[in-house]
Amino acid sequence: MEKSSGQNSSEVFDVVDESDNVVSQNTRGFIHENGLMHRAVHAVFLDGKGSILLQKRSKKKDSYPLAYTTSCSGHVDAGESYEAALVRETREELGVEIEFSKFQKVGKIPACKETGNEFTGVYFIVFNGEFKTPPDEVDSVEWAKISDFEKLAKENPEKFTPSFLKVYEFFKAKSNL
């Protein structure tokens, strides 16, 4: 869920209350150090043929380096909407421009331990295009059969970020896929 490989602790995010209302703004570093609630987006990419896109985090990430995470994810910047953050993160992490209207909203996960105290907007899309990932953000992306991914996640959860496992559980419960 980290935004950049530099882990810029001076990025500014909205701090939110237990109802996801903005109460202040502060730096990424301060928010994470103090466990304050803030916002993130995650998108699950499916190919329409039974596979899910897995993103392997860059080795430069300050948390969960080289772990698998959601196809695309990131923080919502201060003053930014979940929708705008989703479009931006898709461009930054996967190198593709996709209009927000092409995504389907799954719902929002309340801030919790697994998400790093982030209210998490969850979306999905069926997409078969090419990706151009920046190496400082993303080690790799790969399509995996959903059944193979689910088996690996069950047998080796340490290979995945806790937020991805939470997002996927939420996605599976809310979608009819």
Structure summarized in a few sentences:
The chain has 177 residues and is of the alpha+beta class. 24% of the residues lie in helices and 32% in strands.
Descriptive report:
- The chain is α+β, with helices and mostly antiparallel strands.
- The protein has one domain (about 10-175): Alpha-Beta Complex (Nucleoside Triphosphate Pyrophosphohydrolase), CATH 3.90.79.
- About 25% of the residues lie in helices and about 30% in strands.
- The chain has four helices and nine strands, in the order E-E-H-E-E-E-E-H-E-E-E-H-H.
- The chain has helices at about 30-35, 80-95, 145-155, 160-175, and strands spanning about 10-15, 20-25, 40-45, 50-55, 70, 70-75, 105-110, 120-125, 140-145.
- The protein has a four-stranded mixed β-sheet with strand order 6-3-8-7, sandwiched between helices. Strands 5-4-9 form a three-stranded antiparallel β-sheet. A two-stranded antiparallel ribbon has the order 1-2.
- The chain starts with 11 loop residues before the first strand and ends with a helix.
Query: What's the helical proportion of residues?
Result: 10-25%
Structural class: alpha+beta
Q: What is the residue-mean pLDDT, rounded to a whole number?
A: 93
Spatial separation of the terminal alpha carbons: 24 Å
H/E element sequence: EEHEEEEHEEEHH
CATH level 3 topology: Nucleoside Triphosphate Pyrophosphohydrolase
Which architecture per CATH? Alpha-Beta Complex
Number of domains as seen in the coordinates: 1
Q: How is the biggest beta sheet arranged?
A: 4 strands, mixed
Radius of gyration from the alpha-carbon trace, in angstroms: 15 Å
Instruction: Give a count of the beta strands, DSSP E runs of length 2 or more.
Output: 9
Classified by CATH, the class is Alpha Beta
Q: List the strand order in the largest sheet.
A: 6-3-8-7
The amount of beta strand, in percent, is 25-35%
Q: Low-confidence parts lasting 5 or more residues at pLDDT below 50?
A: 1-6
Query: What is the global morphology?
Result: globular
Say which CATH homologous superfamily is assigned: Nucleoside Triphosphate Pyrophosphohydrolase
Number of helices: 4
